[in-house]
Specification:
By secondary structure, the chain is of the alpha/beta class. An 8-stranded parallel beta sheet has the order 14-9-8-19-18-17-16-15. The protein binds acetamide (ACM). The site of acetamide has 4 residues, from loops.
Amino acid sequence: MNFKSLTGSIAGIMLICAATVSAADIIPLPASVTKGKSSYTFPKETTYMVPAYEGDSIANLFTIMLPELEKATGANIRKTDANSDISLMLDMSVPPEGYNLNVSPAGVVISASRPAGFFYGLQTLRQMLPVVAASPATVEEVTITDSPRFGWRGFMLDEGRHIFGKDEVKRVLDMMALYKMNRLHWHLTEDQGWRIEIKKYPKLTDVGAKRKSTSLGWGSFNTDTVPYYGFYTQDDIKEIVAYAKDRFIEVVPEIDIPGHTQAAVAAYPEILACDPENTHEVWIMQGVSRDVMNVSNPAAVQFAKDIIDELIPLFPYGYIHLGGDECPTDKWEKNDACIAQLDSIGSTNFRDLQLNFYKELVNHIAAKPKDEQRKLIFWNEVLHGNTDMLPKDMTIMAWVGADKAAKEAATRGLTTILTPQIPYYINRKQSPLAGEPLTQGWGTETLEAVYNYVPMKDIPAELADKYMGVQANFWSEYVIAPELLEYLMLPRLLAVAEAGWTPQNERNYEDFHKRLRTHEDIFQANDWNYARHAFAKEICKKCLEKKTK
Ligand code: ACM
């Protein structure tokens, strides 16, 4: 792997305490920032006060953040009932994820109407403090009023191709939290590996989490000949979901069915394969496998229902993603049971077999008690079938031809999330510089290109409420190590975080890039790997042009 030249040695240049961002440099840009002339220095013995709210939820949130805040302020922080240095105050007029932050010589006051708003107010305060303070820290006087543009501010992590492990997922969640992102879309199954323990189907991980080898390059038939293995137990999943919950991030699992399922088919060919008489192996190559599930087999439908039953208690939120992208129909077209089923549903479009399969899963979920029901998310290829077969409360995640697909979904009355392949696939190269690591595809999505994508461009007002938000996606075909994942994520993740939070008319790349510079200290103090070239003094594009000449 040749990415060391770009990434440098993190340990060698790690800063211990200098990571302070001025209120003017906060990312994502707040709705309103008014700076004063004074400042506030935390006393060595700092006190805080929290309002009562739904049990102890706000008190718990503060307790969880306490170690970080103590490091960042250089103070010992303890609870009090009056005259506190940091006061969290309930104000029901503030929007659900919004907050007001006031720093004055009298102390710090954060007001919000919900725990999430307090959390985001504290994230803003954290950005204004050192990561580790050498002595009691000082923050500048400021009044900030802030709330997000979109309710869905996501990051998708593919661990089907490569698995990075619990510690790395927690580091990703830390990055997301600091930049106020609130959905981890966890892509846990692929042709190349099944990464979540399902107790009813142990071979999914005994067989499906192992592959003999890994393909070495985009379009290459050469492999590394090294066996690859890994998955998350249900206890691991619970640990990650709890860690994310503490940071106001909902984890949305994706089980990609019925395409991208070769690892599952290899584990259970007798129920999942269209051609069980043939040999099926976890896929080594990259691309789109034709070895998809046989959706006409009742045992395959039951398999999907059983998996959903195990997912629901693990992921206690509103959504499950069932994939639906890139599902070739060739095997169905040659399978007598599939042909008969297509006829029985009165269609000649093989894509409708996929939608009919989802309909059975929707009915299965609808029969559950209310608190176990989940809405479904699908990739936008599902629009190629008859979506009238499915309820209107599903969501289309728009990736290919994203703007057009999202508009089509909204026009059909469906909610949608924008995750355009170009430029929001932040696993792609982030510069044309020599030495950029091998990643999926040949494309380059620079920081500027990612930043300059305009969500909901030219959308009629009557469709606007169907747009839930934006999401960066990370596919891991050739991303074999956590350092490389971080290198490709940062700083591009921040560009998507700002698109999700800040109104379009307030966003400006030059201003973002100027603000971004001070965040380099935060990356270093947290020991996060990142693309150093993105922090060049000139605007990124100009500096890249110079360097590549
Ligand atoms: C996708 O990129 N196949 C969703």
